[in-house]
Amino acid sequence: LAKTTQPISMDSYEGQEVNITCSHNNIATNDYITWYQQFPSQGPRFIIQGYKTKVTNEVASLFIPADRKSSTLSLPRVSLSDTAVYYCLVGERNTGFQKLVFGTGTRLLVSP
Amino acid sequence: NAGVMQNPRHLVRRRGQEARLRCSPMKGHSHVYWYRQLPEEGLKFMVYLQKENIIDESGMPKERFSAEFPKEGPSILRIQQVVRGDSAAYFCASSATSGRRHEQFFGPGTRLTVL
Description:
Shape of chain B: globular
Order of helices and strands of chain B: EEEEEEEEEEE
Distance between the termini of chain A: 38 Å
Structural class of chain B: mainly beta
Helix content of chain B: under 10%
Largest sheet of chain A: 5 strands, mixed
Number of helices of chain B: 0
Radius of gyration of chain B: 14 Å
Order of helices and strands of chain A: EEEEEEEEE
Oligomer: heterodimer
Strand order of the largest sheet of chain A: 1-9-8-3-4
Largest interface: A-B, 21 and 28 residues
């Protein structure tokens, strides 16, 4: 499985846009990029998944350049409740199974 | 539609005792995964099960740990003769047999403390 590298922590203020970049230089052709969010004392929660270019949902956007060696999670207009740890994962989306490999994640702190 | 249920949420055991952690997947999900998280670390995969079958247990310690997902009832992660190093948060996740995203849905976790 491809290894990922992301910043250990980031700070932001309410209302700002936050971009968290993840490096995955060894990503394979069949690999997808998935982001999870984890609040203290809770299990991770799926945010977004993509393969290339741009994916957007009601929570975030995911930007993936053509070489797919990195990806950027974009959170528009963050609020205090977005304070959490964000994990970037890369893996093959096999039918029925995806063994998730979590790194240490990026700890985002949103201040008033 | 209830999410993934785990119980107990908190479990305290003394060294040498047994710990049993339960996980009920989301309705309609037949794939269950167990992960362990140490403080300030990411989750580490332990085992993947389908009904009555262990598919991948490559992350399970070779001794004292076992997991099952019977035809009826919840999945059980069992830790025998617990040691202090077993203290961690244990998360269960489930996924559907098919689906566009193969997303895993996580439960709230069981926090095991070994005294």
